[in-house]
Amino acid sequence: MSNLFKLFEERFPKDLLQSFIETKDGKQYCYQDLINLTSSIASTLSNAGISKSDRIIFQVNKSPEAIFLYLACIKIGAVAVPLNYAYTASELSYFLDDIEPSMVICDPASPIIKEKLLQKKHNSILLTLNKHGKGTLFNDNNASNFVQTADVVGDDVACILYTSGTTGKPKGAMITHENLSSNAIAIHKSWEFNSDDILLHALPIFHVHGLFVALNSVLLSGATMIFLAEFNVDDIIKFLPRTTVLMGVPTFYTRLLAHAELNDKIIKNIRLFISGSAPLLKEVSDKFYKKTGHRILERYGMTETIMIASNPLNEERIPGTVGQALPNISVKITTEDDKTLETGLTGNIQVAGPNVFKGYWKNPVKTQREFTKDGFFKTGDIGFKNVNGYLTIVGRSKDLIISGGYNVYPKEIENIINTLDGINESAVIGIPHPDFGEGVIAIIVKEKNNKFDELNLKKILKKKLATYKVPKRIFDVSQLPHNIMGKVQKNSLREKYRHIFDE
Description:
The strands form six sheets. A nine-stranded mixed sheet has the order 2-1-10-9-11-12-13-14-15. It has helices spanning about 5-10, 30-45, 65-75, 90-100, 110-115, 115-120, 175-190, 210-220, 235-240, 250-255, 280-290, 365-370, 410-415, 455-465, 490-495, and strands at about 20-25, 30, 55-60, 80, 105, 125-130, 155-165, 170-175, 200, 225, 245-250, 270-275, 295-300, 305-310, 325, 330-335, 345-350, 360, 375-385, 390-395, 400-405, 405-410, 425-435, 435-445, 475. It contains 15 helices and 25 strands. With about 500 residues, the protein is an alpha/beta fold.
Protein backbone atom coordinates (compact mmCIF):
# COMPACT_ATOMS: atom_id res chain seq x y z
CA MET A 1 0.00 0.00 0.00
CA SER A 2 1.50 3.38 -1.03
CA ASN A 3 0.58 6.99 -0.25
CA LEU A 4 -2.89 7.30 1.26
CA PHE A 5 -3.54 10.39 -0.85
CA LYS A 6 -2.96 8.36 -4.03
CA LEU A 7 -5.69 6.01 -2.90
CA PHE A 8 -8.03 8.96 -2.51
CA GLU A 9 -7.06 10.40 -5.92
CA GLU A 10 -7.97 7.11 -7.57
CA ARG A 11 -11.46 7.31 -6.04
CA PHE A 12 -12.28 10.97 -6.72
CA PRO A 13 -15.53 11.37 -8.71
CA LYS A 14 -15.26 11.80 -12.48
CA ASP A 15 -17.09 15.09 -12.15
CA LEU A 16 -14.70 17.11 -9.99
CA LEU A 17 -17.32 19.81 -9.58
CA GLN A 18 -19.24 17.47 -7.28
CA SER A 19 -19.55 18.86 -3.75
CA PHE A 20 -16.99 17.62 -1.23
CA ILE A 21 -17.72 19.96 1.71
CA GLU A 22 -20.64 22.21 2.49
CA THR A 23 -20.33 24.39 5.59
CA LYS A 24 -23.05 25.46 7.98
CA ASP A 25 -23.36 28.83 6.25
CA GLY A 26 -23.67 27.24 2.82
CA LYS A 27 -20.13 27.68 1.49
CA GLN A 28 -19.26 24.95 -1.01
CA TYR A 29 -15.96 23.20 -1.78
CA CYS A 30 -16.00 20.79 -4.70
CA TYR A 31 -13.46 18.04 -5.39
CA GLN A 32 -11.56 20.35 -7.75
CA ASP A 33 -11.23 22.80 -4.85
CA LEU A 34 -9.92 19.93 -2.72
CA ILE A 35 -7.25 19.18 -5.32
CA ASN A 36 -6.27 22.82 -5.81
CA LEU A 37 -6.21 23.89 -2.17
CA THR A 38 -4.46 20.73 -0.98
CA SER A 39 -1.79 21.16 -3.67
CA SER A 40 -1.40 24.86 -2.87
CA ILE A 41 -0.84 24.14 0.82
CA ALA A 42 1.48 21.24 -0.06
CA SER A 43 3.48 23.64 -2.24
CA THR A 44 3.71 26.13 0.63
CA LEU A 45 4.99 23.43 2.95
CA SER A 46 7.55 22.25 0.40
CA ASN A 47 8.69 25.81 -0.37
CA ALA A 48 9.30 26.26 3.38
CA GLY A 49 11.64 23.26 3.34
CA ILE A 50 9.26 20.59 4.60
CA SER A 51 9.92 17.19 3.10
CA LYS A 52 9.07 13.55 3.62
CA SER A 53 8.93 12.41 7.28
CA ASP A 54 9.14 15.95 8.69
CA ARG A 55 6.69 16.41 11.54
CA ILE A 56 4.08 19.17 11.37
CA ILE A 57 2.04 20.05 14.44
CA PHE A 58 -1.24 21.77 13.77
CA GLN A 59 -3.47 23.06 16.54
CA VAL A 60 -6.30 24.75 14.72
CA ASN A 61 -10.06 25.14 14.82
CA LYS A 62 -12.13 22.81 12.69
CA SER A 63 -12.51 24.22 9.18
CA PRO A 64 -12.37 22.96 5.57
CA GLU A 65 -8.91 24.49 5.28
CA ALA A 66 -7.77 22.39 8.25
CA ILE A 67 -8.83 19.30 6.30
CA PHE A 68 -6.87 20.47 3.26
CA LEU A 69 -3.85 21.09 5.51
CA TYR A 70 -4.02 17.52 6.80
CA LEU A 71 -4.33 16.16 3.25
CA ALA A 72 -1.40 18.32 2.12
CA CYS A 73 0.79 16.75 4.81
CA ILE A 74 -0.21 13.29 3.60
CA LYS A 75 0.33 14.25 -0.03
CA ILE A 76 3.99 15.30 0.44
CA GLY A 77 4.78 12.46 2.85
CA ALA A 78 5.13 14.68 5.92
CA VAL A 79 3.87 13.47 9.31
CA ALA A 80 0.72 15.23 10.47
CA VAL A 81 0.40 15.79 14.23
CA PRO A 82 -3.07 17.24 14.98
CA LEU A 83 -3.63 18.53 18.51
CA ASN A 84 -6.79 19.36 20.40
CA TYR A 85 -7.54 23.07 20.23
CA ALA A 86 -8.43 23.04 23.95
CA TYR A 87 -4.91 22.17 25.16
CA THR A 88 -3.28 24.56 27.62
CA ALA A 89 0.22 26.02 27.45
CA SER A 90 1.68 23.42 29.79
CA GLU A 91 0.16 20.56 27.76
CA LEU A 92 1.36 22.06 24.48
CA SER A 93 4.89 22.51 25.84
CA TYR A 94 5.10 18.77 26.40
CA PHE A 95 3.99 17.97 22.85
CA LEU A 96 6.42 20.46 21.33
CA ASP A 97 9.31 19.01 23.33
CA ASP A 98 8.34 15.46 22.45
CA ILE A 99 7.68 15.85 18.72
CA GLU A 100 10.34 18.49 17.92
CA PRO A 101 8.33 19.63 14.89
CA SER A 102 9.81 21.16 11.77
CA MET A 103 6.69 23.32 11.47
CA VAL A 104 3.85 24.43 13.72
CA ILE A 105 0.56 25.76 12.38
CA CYS A 106 -1.89 27.19 14.89
CA ASP A 107 -4.65 29.70 15.46
CA PRO A 108 -3.36 33.18 16.37
CA ALA A 109 -5.16 32.77 19.73
CA SER A 110 -3.31 29.55 20.57
CA PRO A 111 -1.10 29.50 23.69
CA ILE A 112 1.71 28.49 21.33
CA ILE A 113 1.70 32.10 20.12
CA LYS A 114 0.34 33.89 23.19
CA GLU A 115 2.84 32.23 25.53
CA LYS A 116 5.65 32.31 22.93
CA LEU A 117 6.27 28.60 23.44
CA LEU A 118 8.36 28.19 20.31
CA GLN A 119 10.67 31.12 21.07
CA LYS A 120 11.66 29.56 24.36
CA LYS A 121 13.00 26.25 23.06
CA HIS A 122 12.24 25.53 19.42
CA ASN A 123 13.30 26.64 15.95
CA SER A 124 10.18 25.42 14.21
CA ILE A 125 8.65 27.37 11.33
CA LEU A 126 5.45 29.03 12.58
CA LEU A 127 2.39 29.68 10.41
CA THR A 128 -1.17 30.59 11.35
CA LEU A 129 -4.63 29.36 10.38
CA ASN A 130 -7.72 30.80 12.08
CA LYS A 131 -11.26 29.44 12.35
CA HIS A 132 -12.27 31.32 9.19
CA GLY A 133 -9.65 29.50 7.13
CA LYS A 134 -7.34 32.51 6.91
CA GLY A 135 -3.74 32.98 8.02
CA THR A 136 -0.10 33.15 7.01
CA LEU A 137 -0.43 29.58 5.70
CA PHE A 138 -1.82 31.24 2.56
CA ASN A 139 0.76 34.03 2.20
CA ASP A 140 3.11 32.15 -0.13
CA ASN A 141 2.87 33.90 -3.50
CA ASN A 142 4.86 31.09 -5.11
CA ALA A 143 2.47 28.34 -4.07
CA SER A 144 1.42 26.08 -6.94
CA ASN A 145 -1.79 24.16 -7.59
CA PHE A 146 0.20 21.32 -9.13
CA VAL A 147 2.27 19.28 -6.66
CA GLN A 148 3.20 15.66 -7.21
CA THR A 149 2.08 13.17 -4.60
CA ALA A 150 5.15 11.82 -2.79
CA ASP A 151 6.20 8.20 -3.11
CA VAL A 152 6.02 6.48 0.24
CA VAL A 153 5.89 2.88 1.39
CA GLY A 154 3.06 1.51 3.47
CA ASP A 155 5.19 1.43 6.62
CA ASP A 156 5.95 5.16 6.45
CA VAL A 157 4.30 7.15 9.23
CA ALA A 158 1.45 9.37 8.03
CA CYS A 159 0.19 10.72 11.33
CA ILE A 160 1.02 10.80 15.02
CA LEU A 161 -1.93 11.01 17.40
CA TYR A 162 -1.37 11.41 21.11
CA THR A 163 -2.97 9.08 23.60
CA SER A 164 -2.23 9.23 27.31
CA GLY A 165 -1.52 6.40 29.70
CA THR A 166 -1.59 5.47 33.35
CA THR A 167 1.69 7.34 33.93
CA GLY A 168 -0.02 10.56 32.87
CA LYS A 169 2.54 11.11 30.08
CA PRO A 170 0.86 11.27 26.64
CA LYS A 171 2.30 8.90 24.03
CA GLY A 172 2.44 9.52 20.30
CA ALA A 173 0.89 6.64 18.34
CA MET A 174 2.62 6.35 14.96
CA ILE A 175 -0.04 5.56 12.34
CA THR A 176 1.19 4.53 8.91
CA HIS A 177 -0.14 4.97 5.38
CA GLU A 178 -0.92 1.24 5.31
CA ASN A 179 -2.79 1.44 8.64
CA LEU A 180 -4.99 4.20 7.26
CA SER A 181 -5.44 2.80 3.75
CA SER A 182 -6.29 -0.75 4.79
CA ASN A 183 -8.71 0.41 7.47
CA ALA A 184 -10.38 2.92 5.16
CA ILE A 185 -11.03 0.18 2.59
CA ALA A 186 -12.39 -2.19 5.25
CA ILE A 187 -14.78 0.45 6.59
CA HIS A 188 -15.82 1.56 3.11
CA LYS A 189 -16.79 -1.98 2.17
CA SER A 190 -18.45 -2.82 5.47
CA TRP A 191 -20.67 0.27 5.54
CA GLU A 192 -21.17 0.43 1.73
CA PHE A 193 -20.39 4.09 1.31
CA ASN A 194 -21.12 5.45 -2.18
CA SER A 195 -21.01 8.72 -4.13
CA ASP A 196 -24.64 9.51 -3.30
CA ASP A 197 -23.95 9.57 0.44
CA ILE A 198 -24.04 12.81 2.39
CA LEU A 199 -22.27 12.52 5.73
CA LEU A 200 -23.19 14.92 8.51
CA HIS A 201 -19.80 15.64 10.11
CA ALA A 202 -19.95 17.21 13.58
CA LEU A 203 -16.93 15.44 15.10
CA PRO A 204 -13.55 16.95 16.07
CA ILE A 205 -10.71 16.46 13.58
CA PHE A 206 -7.86 15.83 16.03
CA HIS A 207 -9.32 12.40 16.78
CA VAL A 208 -9.45 9.05 14.94
CA HIS A 209 -13.23 9.19 14.62
CA GLY A 210 -13.55 12.52 12.82
CA LEU A 211 -10.22 12.67 11.02
CA PHE A 212 -9.88 9.08 9.79
CA VAL A 213 -13.15 7.15 10.01
CA ALA A 214 -15.46 9.90 8.79
CA LEU A 215 -13.15 11.66 6.33
CA ASN A 216 -11.72 8.51 4.76
CA SER A 217 -15.18 7.03 4.22
CA VAL A 218 -16.20 10.11 2.25
CA LEU A 219 -12.99 10.37 0.21
CA LEU A 220 -12.98 6.71 -0.78
CA SER A 221 -16.50 6.99 -2.19
CA GLY A 222 -16.43 10.48 -3.72
CA ALA A 223 -19.23 11.45 -1.33
CA THR A 224 -20.18 14.76 0.28
CA MET A 225 -19.87 16.13 3.82
CA ILE A 226 -22.03 18.68 5.55
CA PHE A 227 -19.27 20.05 7.73
CA LEU A 228 -20.18 21.55 11.11
CA ALA A 229 -17.50 23.24 13.20
CA GLU A 230 -18.92 21.71 16.36
CA PHE A 231 -21.79 19.62 17.63
CA ASN A 232 -24.98 21.55 18.22
CA VAL A 233 -28.15 19.49 18.43
CA ASP A 234 -30.25 22.18 16.72
CA ASP A 235 -27.84 22.20 13.78
CA ILE A 236 -27.98 18.41 13.58
CA ILE A 237 -31.79 18.55 13.47
CA LYS A 238 -31.61 21.23 10.76
CA PHE A 239 -29.36 19.21 8.44
CA LEU A 240 -30.67 15.68 9.09
CA PRO A 241 -33.28 15.87 6.28
CA ARG A 242 -30.46 16.21 3.71
CA THR A 243 -28.24 13.56 5.31
CA THR A 244 -27.76 9.86 4.56
CA VAL A 245 -25.20 9.03 7.28
CA LEU A 246 -24.55 10.44 10.74
CA MET A 247 -21.44 9.44 12.70
CA GLY A 248 -21.46 10.41 16.35
CA VAL A 249 -20.60 9.61 19.91
CA PRO A 250 -23.29 8.45 22.37
CA THR A 251 -23.80 12.04 23.55
CA PHE A 252 -25.09 12.93 20.07
CA TYR A 253 -27.86 10.37 20.38
CA THR A 254 -28.89 11.19 23.95
CA ARG A 255 -29.30 14.83 22.94
CA LEU A 256 -31.16 13.95 19.75
CA LEU A 257 -33.58 11.82 21.76
CA ALA A 258 -34.25 14.77 24.04
CA HIS A 259 -34.99 17.08 21.11
CA ALA A 260 -38.67 17.74 20.44
CA GLU A 261 -38.18 17.87 16.65
CA LEU A 262 -36.68 14.41 16.18
CA ASN A 263 -39.25 12.51 14.11
CA ASP A 264 -39.65 10.17 11.14
CA LYS A 265 -39.94 13.01 8.64
CA ILE A 266 -36.55 14.61 9.23
CA ILE A 267 -34.69 11.28 9.07
CA LYS A 268 -36.42 9.90 5.98
CA ASN A 269 -33.19 10.04 3.92
CA ILE A 270 -30.94 8.53 6.59
CA ARG A 271 -29.63 5.07 5.79
CA LEU A 272 -27.18 4.73 8.67
CA PHE A 273 -26.62 6.06 12.19
CA ILE A 274 -23.19 5.12 13.59
CA SER A 275 -21.92 5.45 17.16
CA GLY A 276 -18.41 5.05 18.53
CA SER A 277 -15.60 6.48 20.70
CA ALA A 278 -17.48 5.49 23.88
CA PRO A 279 -19.89 2.76 24.98
CA LEU A 280 -23.47 3.23 23.80
CA LEU A 281 -25.90 2.28 26.55
CA LYS A 282 -28.42 -0.38 25.53
CA GLU A 283 -31.21 1.79 26.93
CA VAL A 284 -30.22 4.62 24.57
CA SER A 285 -30.04 2.24 21.61
CA ASP A 286 -33.48 0.81 22.41
CA LYS A 287 -35.07 4.24 22.90
CA PHE A 288 -33.62 5.48 19.63
CA TYR A 289 -34.91 2.42 17.78
CA LYS A 290 -38.36 2.82 19.27
CA LYS A 291 -38.52 6.50 18.32
CA THR A 292 -36.95 6.35 14.83
CA GLY A 293 -37.06 2.76 13.62
CA HIS A 294 -33.28 2.91 13.17
CA ARG A 295 -30.98 0.61 15.09
CA ILE A 296 -27.75 2.55 15.72
CA LEU A 297 -24.69 0.73 14.38
CA GLU A 298 -22.11 0.51 17.16
CA ARG A 299 -18.47 -0.11 16.33
CA TYR A 300 -15.17 -0.38 18.18
CA GLY A 301 -11.87 1.34 17.63
CA MET A 302 -9.05 3.15 19.36
CA THR A 303 -6.18 5.47 18.53
CA GLU A 304 -3.61 2.71 18.10
CA THR A 305 -5.76 0.53 15.84
CA ILE A 306 -8.28 2.85 14.16
CA MET A 307 -11.40 0.66 13.62
CA ILE A 308 -11.37 -2.91 14.91
CA ALA A 309 -14.92 -4.24 14.77
CA SER A 310 -18.39 -3.26 13.67
CA ASN A 311 -21.96 -4.42 13.88
CA PRO A 312 -23.16 -5.44 10.40
CA LEU A 313 -24.81 -3.12 7.92
CA ASN A 314 -27.40 -5.54 6.54
CA GLU A 315 -27.80 -8.09 9.31
CA GLU A 316 -28.97 -7.91 12.89
CA ARG A 317 -27.23 -5.33 15.05
CA ILE A 318 -27.04 -6.39 18.64
CA PRO A 319 -27.25 -3.53 21.19
CA GLY A 320 -24.48 -3.73 23.75
CA THR A 321 -22.04 -5.38 21.35
CA VAL A 322 -19.58 -3.80 18.93
CA GLY A 323 -20.03 -6.51 16.32
CA GLN A 324 -17.50 -8.65 14.51
CA ALA A 325 -13.90 -7.96 13.54
CA LEU A 326 -13.51 -6.03 10.28
CA PRO A 327 -11.96 -7.81 7.26
CA ASN A 328 -8.31 -8.90 7.71
CA ILE A 329 -8.37 -8.06 11.42
CA SER A 330 -7.98 -10.69 14.13
CA VAL A 331 -9.44 -10.27 17.62
CA LYS A 332 -8.85 -12.71 20.45
CA ILE A 333 -9.71 -12.87 24.14
CA THR A 334 -6.88 -13.90 26.42
CA THR A 335 -5.78 -14.52 29.96
CA GLU A 336 -3.25 -12.26 31.68
CA ASP A 337 -0.47 -14.51 30.36
CA ASP A 338 -1.77 -14.20 26.76
CA LYS A 339 -3.42 -17.61 26.47
CA THR A 340 -6.50 -17.62 24.23
CA LEU A 341 -9.79 -18.17 26.04
CA GLU A 342 -12.76 -20.19 24.85
CA THR A 343 -15.81 -18.53 23.31
CA GLY A 344 -17.97 -16.77 25.88
CA LEU A 345 -15.25 -16.33 28.49
CA THR A 346 -14.25 -12.83 29.53
CA GLY A 347 -10.66 -11.68 29.26
CA ASN A 348 -8.24 -9.21 27.69
CA ILE A 349 -8.95 -8.05 24.14
CA GLN A 350 -5.98 -8.34 21.78
CA VAL A 351 -5.86 -7.27 18.13
CA ALA A 352 -3.66 -7.95 15.11
CA GLY A 353 -3.92 -6.76 11.51
CA PRO A 354 -2.81 -4.11 9.02
CA ASN A 355 -4.74 -1.51 11.04
CA VAL A 356 -2.49 -1.80 14.10
CA PHE A 357 -0.12 1.13 14.57
CA LYS A 358 3.66 1.02 14.14
CA GLY A 359 4.48 1.88 17.74
CA TYR A 360 4.83 4.75 20.18
CA TRP A 361 6.95 7.71 19.14
CA LYS A 362 10.40 7.61 20.78
CA ASN A 363 9.21 4.90 23.16
CA PRO A 364 10.39 1.46 22.01
CA VAL A 365 10.20 0.00 25.52
CA LYS A 366 6.53 0.91 25.88
CA THR A 367 5.86 -0.35 22.35
CA GLN A 368 7.43 -3.73 23.04
CA ARG A 369 5.51 -4.05 26.30
CA GLU A 370 2.16 -3.49 24.58
CA PHE A 371 2.62 -6.26 22.01
CA THR A 372 2.59 -10.02 22.58
CA LYS A 373 5.25 -12.35 21.22
CA ASP A 374 2.95 -13.36 18.37
CA GLY A 375 2.34 -9.73 17.34
CA PHE A 376 -1.02 -8.96 18.94
CA PHE A 377 -1.62 -5.52 20.45
CA LYS A 378 -2.95 -5.44 24.00
CA THR A 379 -5.86 -3.01 23.83
CA GLY A 380 -6.33 -2.74 27.59
CA ASP A 381 -10.04 -3.48 27.16
CA ILE A 382 -11.84 -6.45 28.67
CA GLY A 383 -14.58 -8.38 26.89
CA PHE A 384 -15.87 -11.60 25.40
CA LYS A 385 -17.05 -12.99 22.05
CA ASN A 386 -20.17 -15.03 21.39
CA VAL A 387 -20.39 -18.03 19.05
CA ASN A 388 -20.93 -15.72 16.06
CA GLY A 389 -17.86 -13.66 16.86
CA TYR A 390 -19.76 -10.64 18.16
CA LEU A 391 -17.57 -8.76 20.63
CA THR A 392 -18.91 -7.30 23.87
CA ILE A 393 -16.73 -4.91 25.88
CA VAL A 394 -17.35 -5.08 29.61
CA GLY A 395 -14.66 -2.81 30.96
CA ARG A 396 -11.12 -1.48 30.67
CA SER A 397 -8.08 -2.80 32.39
CA LYS A 398 -6.27 0.45 31.74
CA ASP A 399 -7.33 3.29 33.98
CA LEU A 400 -9.20 5.19 31.29
CA ILE A 401 -12.31 7.38 31.34
CA ILE A 402 -14.22 8.15 28.13
CA SER A 403 -16.30 11.29 28.61
CA GLY A 404 -18.30 12.63 25.67
CA GLY A 405 -16.14 10.57 23.32
CA TYR A 406 -12.85 12.01 24.66
CA ASN A 407 -10.21 9.96 26.44
CA VAL A 408 -9.41 11.17 29.96
CA TYR A 409 -6.55 9.61 31.87
CA PRO A 410 -6.89 9.93 35.67
CA LYS A 411 -3.16 9.88 36.42
CA GLU A 412 -2.58 13.08 34.46
CA ILE A 413 -5.21 14.92 36.54
CA GLU A 414 -4.08 13.32 39.81
CA ASN A 415 -0.48 14.39 39.15
CA ILE A 416 -1.60 18.02 38.97
CA ILE A 417 -3.94 17.91 41.97
CA ASN A 418 -1.32 16.20 44.14
CA THR A 419 1.19 19.00 43.55
CA LEU A 420 -1.17 21.67 44.91
CA ASP A 421 -0.61 23.09 48.38
CA GLY A 422 -2.91 21.59 50.99
CA ILE A 423 -3.65 18.37 49.08
CA ASN A 424 -2.34 15.08 50.46
CA GLU A 425 -3.78 12.66 47.93
CA SER A 426 -6.35 12.38 45.17
CA ALA A 427 -8.19 9.80 43.10
CA VAL A 428 -9.87 10.58 39.78
CA ILE A 429 -12.56 8.24 38.46
CA GLY A 430 -15.29 8.08 35.85
CA ILE A 431 -18.87 7.31 36.81
CA PRO A 432 -22.06 6.96 34.74
CA HIS A 433 -23.29 10.25 33.30
CA PRO A 434 -26.59 10.59 31.41
CA ASP A 435 -25.15 12.91 28.76
CA PHE A 436 -21.41 12.19 28.51
CA GLY A 437 -21.41 8.43 29.10
CA GLU A 438 -18.92 8.88 31.90
CA GLY A 439 -18.42 11.96 34.05
CA VAL A 440 -15.02 12.80 35.56
CA ILE A 441 -14.95 13.31 39.34
CA ALA A 442 -12.10 13.74 41.81
CA ILE A 443 -11.93 12.64 45.43
CA ILE A 444 -9.29 14.44 47.47
CA VAL A 445 -7.71 14.18 50.91
CA LYS A 446 -6.68 17.60 52.19
CA GLU A 447 -4.21 18.56 54.86
CA LYS A 448 -5.49 19.63 58.25
CA ASN A 449 -6.79 23.20 58.47
CA ASN A 450 -6.96 23.46 54.69
CA LYS A 451 -10.32 24.87 53.71
CA PHE A 452 -11.77 22.82 50.87
CA ASP A 453 -13.11 24.94 48.00
CA GLU A 454 -14.46 22.95 45.06
CA LEU A 455 -14.98 25.99 42.82
CA ASN A 456 -11.49 27.37 43.43
CA LEU A 457 -9.88 24.00 42.72
CA LYS A 458 -11.83 23.75 39.46
CA LYS A 459 -10.57 27.21 38.45
CA ILE A 460 -6.99 26.12 39.09
CA LEU A 461 -7.44 22.94 37.04
CA LYS A 462 -9.04 24.82 34.13
CA LYS A 463 -5.80 26.77 33.75
CA LYS A 464 -3.79 23.56 33.50
CA LEU A 465 -6.10 21.13 31.68
CA ALA A 466 -8.37 21.00 28.68
CA THR A 467 -11.97 21.62 29.78
CA TYR A 468 -13.14 18.05 29.16
CA LYS A 469 -10.53 16.76 31.64
CA VAL A 470 -11.59 19.04 34.51
CA PRO A 471 -13.62 17.06 37.08
CA LYS A 472 -17.32 17.86 37.05
CA ARG A 473 -17.45 17.29 40.80
CA ILE A 474 -14.76 17.25 43.50
CA PHE A 475 -15.33 15.59 46.87
CA ASP A 476 -13.36 15.98 50.08
CA VAL A 477 -12.82 12.88 52.27
CA SER A 478 -10.70 12.10 55.31
CA GLN A 479 -8.98 9.16 53.60
CA LEU A 480 -9.04 7.10 50.42
CA PRO A 481 -9.55 3.31 50.48
CA HIS A 482 -6.27 1.40 49.93
CA ASN A 483 -5.44 -2.27 49.63
CA ILE A 484 -2.58 -4.01 51.46
CA MET A 485 -0.17 -2.92 48.70
CA GLY A 486 -1.17 0.71 49.13
CA LYS A 487 -3.10 0.98 45.86
CA VAL A 488 -6.25 3.11 45.90
CA GLN A 489 -9.32 0.91 45.49
CA LYS A 490 -11.07 2.83 42.76
CA ASN A 491 -13.76 0.18 42.32
CA SER A 492 -15.15 0.99 45.75
CA LEU A 493 -15.07 4.70 44.94
CA ARG A 494 -16.95 4.12 41.69
CA GLU A 495 -19.59 2.18 43.58
CA LYS A 496 -19.90 4.85 46.26
CA TYR A 497 -20.29 7.76 43.85
CA ARG A 498 -21.91 6.03 40.86
CA HIS A 499 -25.32 7.67 41.33
CA ILE A 500 -24.36 11.32 41.88
CA PHE A 501 -25.30 12.29 38.30
CA ASP A 502 -28.65 10.46 38.44
CA GLU A 503 -30.43 13.47 39.84
